Amino acid sequence: MSIKITSNVGSGSIQPDSLVSYSYSEDVTSIDPTTSNGGTSQVNVSALSNSTTPFLINNVMELDDSESGAISFRVKGVGINAGLAAITGDTLMARLNVEKTAQPVGGPAETPATLLDAINYYCGLVGITPQFDDLLDESLDLIPVNFIGWSGNLWEHLKMLCSVASFSLTDNAPIEMYFSAGVLRFREALARSVDYSESESESSVLIDAFDAAKSIEVSYYNTSYGVDKVFYELSNYDKDTADADKFNSSIDDILQVDAGATVTKRFTVNASLTSVNQPTCVGTITRVPPAPYADGGNGEYVIVGSDNLPIDPTQWAELGGSLTVSITENPNEIEITITAPPSETMPTEADPATEVTPAPYKIGAESSGLADYPALWLTGTGVFFAKEDRLFLPGADDTYTSNDIAPAVDNPFITDLHTLSNAGIAAAQSYCGPSVTVSKAVGKPGVFGQTIGQRERIADNVFRYESASYGPASVQLAGRMYTLVNEFDENWVDATFTTFNAALAGLTFNEFTVAPLTKGI
Question: What domain count does the chain have?
Answer without folding.
Answer: 3
